[in-house]
């Protein structure tokens, strides 16, 4: 039998008379004779009725041995039986579990609906694991466990004491974070865990963490059922993920998944709410990429790169014939190149109508996947993701019927609608109208089903929008505050601002400066062009009444300031550059 250690395990003690304390084994109690009496037969067991039965008889009937190499049978705090030999076998597992910690977080989320204030503080819990990176012990967990945290505390398994931690690096894109703890007492009797490799399909895994429903460590077991790119719900990015048939519940996030050798094969991070016992784990290639990234950049996260192209499958035989591809073969068609993906070397730049045949020597199939094993395939994007921005990918490309070997530069391309950012939202109020840049934080205000509930024009910008300039931003008319001067404008909330007095809006800073310039001009009005289905809409604000309306809404809605702190810094820079005369 395999006996698991229980919390609070205790060894048997010698009694005053010299006899061993009684232990429970398989429903009967074990007892050895007092030391003063020389044993003439095997140890005896006390059955439920108090009758003595020799251990040898129980062993013969059950077909098992209750003794291992003469090791005595011991009981734990609950009276459960085990031997010193099995205790030694479980010591390695117990050491691993001591390196899985519970994380307590108090967070204050920014309020993108009312950007001049924050949401109320919230308390949450998660899990984490101790690792050693560049000779220093740290705690690895999920980014969403510590997002917007004002206080982070960590507790070891089996301990009641909490230790204050701080974030060393947070990467929302891959939902990973590293924590530091300065108190040396925390690191006593705790060992870093070892990262393993990507498991095979149907390999068994154990997920360890602190899910809701209890306060102690919990272990669930399952097998790996899929290895492919999945959408990381926290950021919307598609990265490599393991799907397992073990439950991952709230509180499990950030906990390790172990293989049978005791090595970490991933970090639990999300589940499938519509299904039962389906969980997802961040695999070690993504973890190692994150660790190498932040440790080589002093905690700064640079992210996963891209080659900046939009591709199409080439499974259709007519398309393959048109492209000059064999009937049976691979390759994916480049449909378009991102405006920011231009390389300084024209010879190494991908072009529309190129067909990518291989990346880093790995053949690309017509469906955009590459072979991992006889039963596993993964998207070609993973080959690019394992690079770092600025590195090159060796590609074999078919262009105009000729094969070329290119060294294509990878680069970091941000989304037109930025991912989660742990900072106060930028905003600007003028004439009772609230303006702000469109971010994922704003979309998340629509709740867990934000993709379905947010305006379709905004989710389309998140899903398909591309930067045409490095500093481009979507400026949004987010809210119209009620006043007689804003009557009729409420229906234009949540619209994109395209232009100010006919000048195109490029980003939020430029929009703010243009509005400030318009307010100080001799013109009585400022005209804003808004994107709207069927034709652009227009709102007009009168400068004279705008100041009066702003004073009123500031009192009514208890708004501390009409512009966000980052715009106050912009004004400060202008004052320094222009001098007191232009204050």
Please write out the topology.
Blueprint: E1 23-25, E2 28-31, E3 44-46, E4 52-54, H1 55-62, E5 73-75, E6 81-83, H2 84-98, E7 100-107, E8 122-133, E9 136-141, H3 143-146, E10 149-155, E11 162-171, E12 176-180, E13 204-209, E14 218-231, E15 238-244, E16 256-258, E17 264-271, E18 279-283, H4 284-295, E19 309-312, H5 317-323, E20 332-337, E21 355-359, E22 362-363, E23 369-373, E24 376-379, H6 381-385, E25 392-399, E26 402-409, E27 428-430, E28 433-437, H7 440-444, H8 450-453, H9 456-464, E29 475-480, E30 495-500, E31 503-504, H10 508-519, E32 525-530, E33 537-542, H11 543-556, H12 565-578
Antiparallel strand pairs: 1-2, 2-3, 3-4, 5-6, 7-8, 7-10, 8-9, 9-12, 10-11, 11-12, 13-14, 13-16, 14-15, 15-18, 16-17, 17-18, 19-20, 20-21, 21-22, 21-25, 23-24, 25-26, 27-28, 28-29, 29-30, 30-31, 30-32, 32-33
Report on the structure:
The chain is of the alpha+beta class. The protein is 19% helix and 32% strand. The radius of gyration is 32 Å and the shape is globular.
Per DSSP, the total helix count is 12
* Mean of pLDDT: 84
How much helicity do the residues have?
10-25%
* Broad structural category: alpha+beta
User: Residue ranges: pLDDT <50 for 5 or more in a row?
Assistant: 1-42
Shape: globular
- The CA-CA distance between the termini, in Å, is 82 Å
Assembly context of the chains: single chain
- Tally of strands: 33
Strand share of the residues?
A: 25-35%
**Biggest beta sheet summary:** 7 strands, antiparallel
Query: Radius of gyration in whole Å, from Cα?
Result: 32 Å
């Amino acid at each position: 039998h395999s006996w698991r250690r229980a919390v609070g395990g205790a060894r048997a003690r010698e009694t005053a008379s010299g006899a061993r304390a009684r232990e429970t084994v398989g429903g009967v109690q074990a007892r050895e004779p007092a030391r003063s009496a020389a044993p003439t037969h095997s140890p005896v067991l006390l059955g439920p009725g108090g009758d003595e039965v020799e251990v040898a008889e129980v062993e013969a009937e059950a077909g098992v041995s209750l003794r291992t190499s003469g090791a005595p049978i011991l009981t734990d705090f609950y009276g459960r039986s085990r031997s010193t030999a099995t205790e030694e076998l479980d010591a390695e597992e117990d050491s691993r579990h001591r390196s899985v910690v519970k994380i307590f977080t108090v967070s204050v989320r920014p309020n993108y609906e009312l950007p001049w204030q924050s949401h109320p503080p919230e308390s949450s819990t998660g899990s984490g694991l101790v690792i050693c990176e560049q000779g220093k012990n740290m705690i690895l967990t999920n980014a969403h466990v510590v997002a917007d945290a004002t206080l982070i505390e960590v507790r070891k398994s089996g301990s009641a004491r909490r230790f204050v931690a701080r974030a060393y690096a947070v990467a929302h894109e891959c939902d990973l974070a590293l924590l530091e703890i300065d108190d040396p007492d925390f690191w006593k009797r705790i060992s870093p865990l070892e990262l393993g490799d990507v498991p095979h399909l149907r390999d068994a895994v154990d997920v360890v963490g602190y899910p809701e429903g209890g306060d102690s460590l919990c272990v669930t077991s399952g097998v790996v059922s899929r290895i492919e790119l999945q959408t990381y719900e926290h950021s919307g990015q598609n990265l490599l993920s393991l799907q397992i048939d073990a439950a991952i519940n709230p509180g499990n996030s950030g906990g390790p998944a172990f293989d049978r050798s005791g090595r970490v094969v991933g970090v639990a991070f999300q589940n499938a709410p519509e299904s039962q016992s389906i969980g997802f784990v961040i695999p070690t290639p993504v973890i190692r990429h994150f660790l190498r990234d932040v440790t080589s950049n002093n905690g700064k996260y640079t992210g996963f790169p891209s080659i900046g192209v939009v591709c199409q499958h080439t499974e259709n035989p007519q398309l393959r014939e048109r492209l000059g591809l064999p009937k049976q073969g691979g390759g994916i068609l480049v449909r378009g190149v991102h405006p920011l993906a231009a390389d300084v070397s024209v010879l190494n730049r991908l072009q529309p109508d190129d067909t990518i045949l291989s990346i880093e020597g790995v053949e690309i199939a017509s469906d955009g996947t590459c072979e991992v094993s006889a039963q596993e395939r993964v998207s070609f994007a993973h080959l690019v993701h394992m690079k770092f921005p600025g590195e090159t990918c060796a590609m074999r490309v078919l262009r105009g019927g000729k094969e070329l070997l290119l060294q294509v530069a990878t680069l970091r391309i941000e989304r037109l609608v930025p991912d989660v950012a742990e900072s106060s939202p930028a905003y600007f109020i003028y004439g009772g109208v609230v303006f702000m840049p469109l971010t994922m934080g704003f979309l998340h205000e629509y709740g867990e089903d934000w993709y379905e509930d947010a305006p379709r024009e905004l989710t389309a910008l998140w899903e398909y929008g591309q930067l045409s300039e490095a500093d481009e931003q979507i400026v949004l008319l987010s809210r119209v505050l009620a006043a007689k001067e804003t009557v009729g404008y409420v229906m234009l909330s949540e619209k994109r601002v395209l232009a100010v007095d006919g000048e195109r809006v490029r980003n939020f800073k430029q929009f703010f400066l243009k509005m400030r310039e318009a307010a100080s001009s001799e013109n009585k009005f400022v005209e804003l062009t808004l994107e709207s289905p069927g034709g652009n809409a227009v709102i007009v604000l009168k400068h004279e009444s705008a100041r009066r309306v702003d004073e009123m809404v500031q009192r009514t809605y208890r708004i501390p300031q009409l512009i966000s702190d980052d715009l106050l810094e912009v004004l400060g820079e202008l004052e320094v550059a222009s001098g007191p005369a232009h204050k």
